Amino acid sequence: MARISFKLLQQSVEFHNPSRDWQLDRQEIEIRLDPLTGHQSILSGALKGKISILFPETDYGYIQQRVEATKDRCFMCHGRWREATPRFPERLLPEGRIARGEIVLFPNLYPLAPYHAVVMIGEKHGRALDEFPTSLLHDAFSVSLEFIKRCFELDPEALYFTINANFMPPSGGSAVHPHLQVLGSPFPTTHHLLLLERSRAYLSDNGSCYWLDLVETEKRTGERWLGEIDKSRWLTAFSPVGVNEVNAVWPDASHFLEWSDNDIQAMAEGVRRALLTYHDLKFSTFNYSCFSGPLGQSAPEFRCFFRLVNRQNITPHYRTDDYFLQKLLKNEIIIYRPEHLASLIKERFQV
Questions:
Q1: Contact, 1 vs 213, CB < 8 A?
Q2: Which of 227, 292, 239 lies closest to 266 in space, CA to CA?
Q3: Which of 24, 41, 268, 312 is 20 to 30 Å from the Cα of 136, by its Cα?
Q4: pLDDT at position 265, please?
Q5: Distance, CA of 16 to CA of 24 (rounded, Å)
Q6: 312 with 318: CB under 8 angstroms?
């Protein structure tokens, strides 16, 4: 196993502070570098006093107002999906859609990839983050994997798939009704490609798989380690690409076609536990993406990898948490120190 280096850069800033009678103020900044990609996350102690501005508390009354206001025109509610959602061609899905229990998969009316499905997660229009049972998530992820398999059977050049979610408007979700999205293409998205390329380079330089080394290192040090669910391994990100990032790695699976039902169940249970902690902390939105190596190919350098992050809380006048620093400079602000976040979530995994 190669030794993974978790790099921290300490910097200081000085200025005369009017709130301290113009005394010279010295503040410390910590910059964290992702061990694989070099992505930078910035932790500033001064931001503690600004968290209420950056992340105002969730307004649950306002959420209920929005849920009620959008229910009657929701195209997924009350079986409206049967008439309002498109169908896939018969050559891909003879039935046009995949329906299982409260889960329905159908084409995205505004596709962003050759294979782009929306998966309705349950019949209930609005959910809080403590209302995603493992069984419901399992069915949603299971249907997603079934779709991926059918796409690959039809089109063996469609090698690169991700499973993704925007939950509520601050995350980019245009529908309040809970859902996820599956994207598939002959070539990976920008970040997916970066992960694959850096993983290959790591294997070439070190003779080992980065993802296996990461799991072993994080488990040994324990600072960000959350635990194991079946064969999946859960941790918080050392240098998060989003607020309060939670990760998972499947050491025995380099692509989605290698997943068993136990792997799907592990993802569902891990997501449920992480969302429960987000709910405890009064966060109300999230994004996630799960990345696969190229389907059907041996990829010793890669393992299936999951990212879950918070987005801005829902209030009547919420501000975006994605501005020049994230969008253009590709850095991220750390709200909860990853080691502290792990301590908050870890008890959910000790069952």
A1: yes
A2: 227
A3: 312
A4: 98
A5: 4
A6: yes
* Alpha-carbon separation of residue 228 from 104, 111, 231, 316, 337 (angstroms): 29, 35, 7, 38, 21
Taking Cα atoms as reference points, which of 269, 273, 228, 233 lies closest to residue 250?
233
Question: Would you say the C-alpha torsion 258, 264, 266, 270 has a positive or negative sign?
Answer: positive
Length of the chain: 351
Structure tokens of 19? 């709130």
Q: Which of 174, 191, 168 lies closest to 287, judged by CA? A: 168
Residue 193 and residue 185 in contact, taking contact as beta carbons nearer than 8 Å: no
CB 211 within 8 A of CB 233: no
101: left (phi over 0), alpha (psi -120 to 50) or beta: left
Structure tokens at 125: 């229009």
307: nearest Cα among 260, 350, 264, 243: 243
Say how far residue 233 (Cα) sits from the centre of its chain.
Answer: 15
Q: How far apart are CA 161 and CA 290, in angstroms?
A: 9
Residue linked to tokens 């992702």: 34
**Which of the residues in the chain have pLDDT under 70?**
none
Within 10 Å of residue 16's Cβ, how many Cβ atoms? 10
Q: Are 236 and 247 in contact (CB under 8 A)?
A: yes
CATH class, 64-322+336-349 region: alpha beta
Distance between CA atoms of residues 347 and 277, nearest Å: 9
pLDDT in tens, 187-246: 999 999 999 999 999 999 999 999 999 999 999 999 999 999 999 999 999 999 999 999
- Name the pTM for this structure: 0.96
Q: CA 114 to CA 158: how far, in whole Å? A: 9
pLDDT of residue 52: 79
